[in-house]
Specification:
This protein is mainly alpha-helical and about 350 residues long. It contains 13 helices and five strands. Helix 4 crosses helix 7. The protein is globular, with a radius of gyration of 21 Å. The model has no long low-confidence stretch (mean pLDDT about 95). The structure holds tryptophanyl-5'AMP.
Length: about 350
Amino acid sequence: MTSSRPRVFSAMQPTADSLHLGNYLGALRQWVALQDTHDAIYSVVDLHALTVAPEPEALRRRSRVTAAQYLAAGVDPERSLLFLQSHVPEHAELAWLLSCLTGFGEASRMTQFKDKSARVGAEATNVGLFTYPVLMAADILLYNTDLVPVGEDQKQHLELSRNLAQRLNSRYATEDSPLVTVPEPYIVKETAKIYDLADPGSKMSKSGHPSGLIELLDDPKTVATRIKSAVTDADTVIAFDPVNKPGVSNLLSIHSALSGVPVEQLVADFDGKMYGHLKVAVVEVVENALGPVRERVTELLARPEELDEILADGAGKARAIARTTLARVYDAVGLVPAR
Ligand code: TYM
């Protein structure tokens, strides 16, 4: 890794047996492309996943499967660091410090927390879910990250990370020599929010409708069935109009993102055709993109020692960076260095 290049950091939670198309288009594909221009660090945030109380065996399996999907999609361990968050204890340590800089009201305003806690009720909500965005800020600030490629749903969390970085710097550092870098979000408009196929008013999400989800590791038949049953509308015109035709527009966005054909061109190509034609074409581009990823994941999971080796190597290198940042921040806030 060359230190002259700007740094990119991002992560996903290992909370499902497969990533979905929203994760892939909104984030993972950007991660792969950014390796060409940035120092890249990518993590599987297993500590974040504890907020939903997973079965231990499922968490272990999903952590490895998530890492395998990063690699299969093109994250290159020769150029990027890839590690499990719990292997770098500095994340939890910096999170504590940052939680002491975060206002209770500020954390209470996070819409994702409000939505999730409303779904399960206050009694079933845990404190980890509440402080989750602070741990996310720690993930980012530990690596002096310049850019964070994510989907639109992470925008507010990133705003908190930026505020916390600015607060750390203004309280404990000088303008000429800041303690941490203030990160910028990197959100690609066209794929910032991929919608649920069965409910195109909501984002595609692992907690949404199973029939509205395209999972990277689903078998091709399931993927095809879901795309063919995607909700469209009573009209028959193929046009890009996210407000009035959310289902059709979502299919066009997915096709365009994967095929590279601009949406306007697709609309012209499908002029006079039926929704069924568009769906068949989407099935094909999705399979062309996901088929090779699925195969690579199977290969990687067949050699778990190799995968664990990549993760151990990434954790060692990430930790060296994280340790330096944490020591600098601890010192700046007045903690006496351990001898
Ligand atoms: P997570 O695990 O929910 O999602 C991983 C990434 O996928 C993006 N995404 C989507 N993009 C477009 N359309 C969708 N329907 C869609 N659904 C999900 C998310 O925006 C995200 O980029 N808090 C984070 C994980 C995290 C993190 C970090 C991210 C922890 N620490 C530090 C960046 C930097 C999360 O829960 O993402």
